Amino acid sequence: MKILLMGPPGAGKGSQSEKLVKDYELTNISTGEMFREANRNNEQLGIEAMRFINKGKLVSDKITNEIVRKRLLRPDAERCFLLDGYPRTVAQAEALDTMLDKMESKLTAVINIVVDKQAILERMVGRRVCKSCGLSYHLSFKPPKQQGVCDACGGELYQREDDQLHSVKNRLEIYETKTKPIIEYYANRGILRNVNGMQSFDKVYEDIKKALGEVA
Ligand SMILES: [Zn+2]
Predict the structure, then answer these.
(1) Tens digit of each residue's pLDDT (9 = 90 or more) over 59-71
(2) Cα dihedral sign for 56, 62, 66, 72?
(3) By the 8 A CB rule, do 31 and 89 touch?
(4) Residue 145 Cα, ligand 1 centroid: separation in angstroms?
(5) Domain that holds residue 87
(6) Residue 121 domain-assigned?
(7) Is 13 a catalytic residue?
(8) CA 147 to ligand 1 centroid distance, Å
(9) Which of 69, 88, 117, 209 is an active site residue?
């Protein structure tokens, strides 16, 4: 099984992919993680990539494709994997197809977690985090007993920079403009499966499994 999980920030992609990797014994291939590792190992490619990442920019298609190509050649990626954070552009999606073709392999499915933009905004903007112990709260879904104070340790609750309205809007917009063409690309190939992300974690996971059952 070779799958790709897509969805906007706040769609719960991280926890869903964690569970998928465990249950299906997939090799998790995360480009962000690979860049950090290559950088730690002082590889030229990693050093170059971190220069982009540290500036908040997307790493070039060339560098990203190269690190993925090398990773896919390792034996643990031969049978099944879950790709995380890649492809980010149509050019990368095309490059991935070429790589897999050469390996006489192909993607099993592309799972797209679909969420309501307004709900995502509410979900993310209401999040508060404890400055002292890191516990998460939510103004609507999991409010603290006393406003602005952590139940567990009495620490001060604050809103993370990237949870602020303008920032969340910005991230959602970037996602939409960059990924819509990729979603269309895979829809045209007939391997795209949309899953309703506006449900409980367990229900979303169940639907992903059903979608995988149809294509596997
Ligand atoms: Zn606390």
Answers:
(1) 889 999 999 999 9
(2) positive
(3) no
(4) 12
(5) 2-116+179-215
(6) no
(7) yes
(8) 13
(9) 88
